[in-house]
Amino acid sequence: MNPYKVIIAGWFTVDPNKRDEVVKAHEDLVKRARQAPGCLDLAITADPVDPSRVNNFEYWQSEEDLESFRAVANPPKQITPIRSVEMQKHEISKSGPPF
Question: pTM to 2 decimals?
Answer without folding.
Answer: 0.92
